[in-house]
Design brief:
With about 375 residues, the protein is α/β, with parallel strands linked by helices. The chain is about 45% helix and about 15% strand. It is built from 15 helices and 13 strands. Strand 7, helix 9 and strand 8 form a beta-alpha-beta unit. The chain is globular.
Length: about 375
């Protein structure tokens, strides 16, 4: 059909002319602190494997043990025959750890977020989201029958004004924002939701495992309990998948009506078995979070005087570059020194907000972070003035 071909070609040409073309790279050991590209090694500062579990031998062994016990695939959706003792045990461990009645499992955080919004909201409801929420949440809100409003990033006063205009509202925010590394003011938002009789949902993809007591996440750190908590397993857990933590009643409702759960093949039971092991590792291995704190101090002490530096309490360290071509130039400068960082450009971030998204992990060491900060200082002198 010519219309589709013309539209596709035009979109690709526009993206290329803007210097924003995205490409896939086949990388070796990309889930480790050092990766390889075309035979060249680089220190990897672009991974979300914050606790360094993705290549941990104990976790690998747990998945292998799960394969021996349960085989490879789940074979069906959860409500057919795809729900096993491994899945049930993972749900129980998550609930015990995070203090909820139910945990509904999904194959990805994207699916969990969309299922939450599509299942719970109707046309008479109002969805109020932080403007910087993840694409999965914003897209779900746009497609939902509910009325969506977006409040200024982390602005509780703006949120309050929007809630005062709504009778049946669900407020959705992230615990930690993936591109900025900053944290939502969850205690203030939770208090406001209680006052306005609204429900609160928190996507804690980048907070779980890293923040809070024993890695229990952003809500634990802020001493709140939202009605809905989304945790994903592709970051600090070192694996993949997600869960919605909720009450018994909401869990039953999602089991009936969350299409992403009902009609998708369940995650492999061997994966659920490994995730249960990851839960235990996160809670008991405090040294991983202590290591992150040490590396964050090294990074802060070396770069805090630079204009592009952004202070965060998380392993996500955006270094602001301004324009997309500047971010690409700095990333290339670092690459020439065997340091792998990702330049984040529009449309992922606003115009003028291009940046390096630096992420630290427990598998890095002080020498590697020191090398990174030295290279960033050199690049800043060259490209930022």
């Amino acid at each position: 059909m010519p219309a589709f071909k013309n539209r596709i070609n035009k979109a690709l040409e526009i993206r290329k002319s803007q210097g924003l073309t995205r490409t896939l790279k086949s990388l070796v050991n990309s889930n480790q602190a050092t990766l390889s590209d075309s035979g060249q090694s680089y220190v990897n500062f672009s991974s979300n494997d914050y606790l360094g579990l993705a290549s941990d031998k104990s976790l690998i062994g747990a998945w292998q043990d799960g394969l021996d016990k349960y085989g490879v695939g789940s074979g069906a959706s959860p409500l057919v025959t795809g729900f096993s003792p491994a899945h049930q045990n993972l749900e129980s461990k998550l609930c015990e750890w995070l203090g909820f009645d139910r945990a509904i499992l999904f194959s990805s955080g994207f699916s969990a977020n969309q299922a939450l919004i599509f299942s719970l909201l109707d046309k008479q409801d109002t969805l109020v989201q932080d403007k910087l929420n993840h694409a999965s949440l914003i897209e779900a809100g746009m497609l939902s029958s509910a009325t969506m409003k977006r409040f200024q990033h982390n602005n509780v006063n703006n949120l309050s004004r929007l809630l005062s205009q709504s009778e049946s509202a669900l407020v959705v925010t992230e615990g930690v924002f993936s591109m900025d590394g900053d944290c939502a003011p969850l205690s203030e938002i939770a208090a406001l939701c209680q006052k306005q009789n609204a429900w609160l949902a928190v996507d804690d993809a980048h907070g779980i495992g890293v923040l809070g007591d024993k890695g229990a996440g952003s809500c634990n750190a802020e001493n709140i309990k939202p009605e809905l908590l989304v945790v994903t397993f592709g970051k600090a857990f070192g694996l993949s998948g997600a869960a919605i933590l909720c009450s018994e009643e909401v869990g039953d409702y999602l089991t009936q009506f969350a299409r992403h759960h009902v009609y998708s093949t369940a995650m492999p039971p061997s994966q659920a078995h490994a995730l249960t092991h990851a839960c235990q590792m996160i809670q008991t291995q405090d040294w991983r979070r202590e290591k992150l704190q040490e590396l964050q101090s090294v990074y802060r002490n070396a770069l805090s005087d630079l204009s592009g530096y952004v202070e965060t309490q998380t392993p996500i360290k955006p270094f602001m570059c301004g324009e997309a071509d500047t971010a690409m130039s700095i990333a290339q400068h670092l690459k020439e020194q065997q340091i792998w960082t990702t330049a984040i450009r529009p449309p992922t971030v606003p115009q003028g907000g291009a940046r390096l998204r630096v992420t630290l992990t427990a598998n890095h060491n002080v020498e590697q972070v020191t090398k990174l900060t030295g290279a960033i200082r050199q690049a800043a002198d060259l490209y930022l003035g």
